[in-house]
Amino acid sequence: MDHELPPSVPADVDDAPGPAVPVEAGQEHPDNTDAAPGDAAPSSELARAASDYRRAAKSLENLLLGGERTLKRREVAQGLGLSLFSARKLWRALGMPNFTDDDLAFTTEDLEHLRLMPGLVRDGVLTEDAALSVTRAIGQMTDRMVVWQVEALVEDMVATQGISDAEARVRLVEELPNLIEPLEEMLVYSWRRQLSAGVQRLAVRAKEGLEASEEGRTGREDDAPLPLARAVGFADLVSYTSLSRRMNEKTLARLVQTFENTCAEVISVGGGRLVKTVGDEVLYIAETPTAGAEIALALSREIAADERLPEGRVAMVWGRVLSRLGDIYGPTVNLAARLTAIAAPGQVLVDELTAGVLGSDARFVLSPLAAQNVRGFGEVRPVALSRGEGTGIVLD
Q: 163 CB contacts (<8 Å, ≥6 apart)?
């Protein structure tokens, strides 16, 4: 694992000198040993700090990788029984950078773990394409997860210890060894729980959902050939772009974090799945139209109730989708996105087909609106969704 060094710390941990200290015109060089307290630290102190950081980073790398990097890429490919071309496909799927023939890039523990996927292909359990796709999912998801965790830890250290962002990143390298084991254990536990839920959601209940999706449909809809019936919903924040231009970094970060945390909680409690977040927008799915509608109403309510957030708008469509690469695709997704874009602040919209499915449920009030020309779909008659009987999703 490569570690990004904080500003002012040389990237070459073996040969680089200590970090240079900028000298303004008219000042003496900071090597001056008579520097008064409060002046810039002597370069020898900075060099020691850089050296301490490099040692800590090297120790952390050895701990994470299981030892020193002693193997070159051709040695690893040979140990895997793969051509260099096939081996490169494997570690690129994991998100590793390019290595040259001369780089000592791998450890013996790397070699042991990298044998797993080729072994499944040789045993006929997976095709090569499936193995690479599964590996790519692991690489991309863990990459995002690691960045998220590091930023959360740095932010917490800045807030609680009164240090700068750069200082927190250096200090985190020293503290991470105590966190590796619990983080790893929680990762494996969460993966097992998510896999169990995914099997139920994507396989066991798939037939039930498809049968339920027949209501109000002729079979000639654009999404008819797609394999999964799902409620697809979007929520976004009104005027986010203009607001973000006026915010400083910390305020914007808090806004985005508040929005994402609120949406994630509502979707989870409502039994849905958060597919992805992109700045001011979240995409979710649910297994039934009623679950999708309850989540949509709860999202609108919770966003409106939080004074830290601007107004939100939400849309939900019940239809069929294709699930690939951890994302979902198809006309249902596109229509939900288009309806979100035309929704008024604080409004929840559905399409006519979805309204027809929800129409007999007293929990929902459906109010047809004037037809609008929606890009890619022509004339669409949106329907406003609001709360009928009951309280809906209740957050603890």
A: 157, 171
